[in-house]
Amino acid sequence: RVKAEGRDGYRFFAPDMDESVKLRREIEEDLRAAITREDELCVHYQPQMDGSGGGVIGVEALLRWRHPRRGSLAPAAFVKVAEESGLIGPLTRRVLRDACGVAIAWPGLSVAVNISPVQFRSRTLAAELIAIVRETGARAQQIELEVTESVLLDNDEVVHSTLSALRRAGFRIALDDFGTGYSSLSYLSKFKVDKIKIDRSFIQRLGEADDAAAIVHAVVRLGHAMGLVVTAEGVETGLQHAFLKHAGCNEMQGFLFSEAVPAAALRRLLGRLEQAA
Ligand code: C2E
Ligand code: MG
Ligand code: MG
Ligand code: MG
């Protein structure tokens, strides 16, 4: 494949490619080791507010990696590697286990966990997730699984039966980053979900671009017409908040309220957010 770049291409690209291949391999090896350790991988939780911006109704589990040499890494730096190297399964199991602990500690909150599209290729996904929730003693009804639209593109029987099995077990399904994938509205009627999360890119352009406002209004109306909960992600400003509240958005999440914090910091954060409400 390298040679197909042509001779000049080869000479120009080879050093860079070597570097990125090396980096990728290193991340993979380090990740494999990190999964077996207690302290490197940790799950942070970002609050999700009700539509009025008042009470906290849930939290989303977001993975962080305290890499021994590279410092704190965001998922962008390692989730793709995990997906490509078969490590995403163990990672997700770990996040879900942690999330179940939070669900048990906070019976009134919903706890969202991101599931990679890659995992939906496995026929055993639903059984695995159900087993973890059972082992921990949490209730599936409290757990929300976030999947991206790309999952629905694989319109096959595996995705369909996995999603149905998960919903039958009590999990709620949220469509993450809604509006960014190659989404077709027909997927919304083919696959039953409970919630759509309007992608941050639309929220960020509110107030700057008329089309963003039109899209947000339309998605809220579409979602409600289909009986779905509509969440906005990436809410950063009071203006965005006011717009979304007026548009009838059911839930909001974003730095305006809080970034993701370690589970140990949740009690204080939730107390502060409830007081502000
Ligand atoms: P996501 O599921 O859409 O999560 C939301 C991301 O937006 C998080 O980034 C969060 O920190 C960030 N965010 C929240 N509010 C704001 C805001 O107001 N402004 C801005 N600029 N950003 C905001 P994070 O934690 O870096 O995660 C990025 C992506 O990595 C997630 O997007 C999700 O797709 C993936 N991810 C995170 N944790 C996991 C995990 O445990 N498993 C899997 N498979 N993927 C994960
Ligand atoms: Mg998410
Ligand atoms: Mg999202
Ligand atoms: Mg997003």
Automatic annotation (TrEMBL):
This is Diguanylate cyclase (GGDEF)-like protein. Signal peptide: none annotated. Residues 24-274 form the EAL domain.
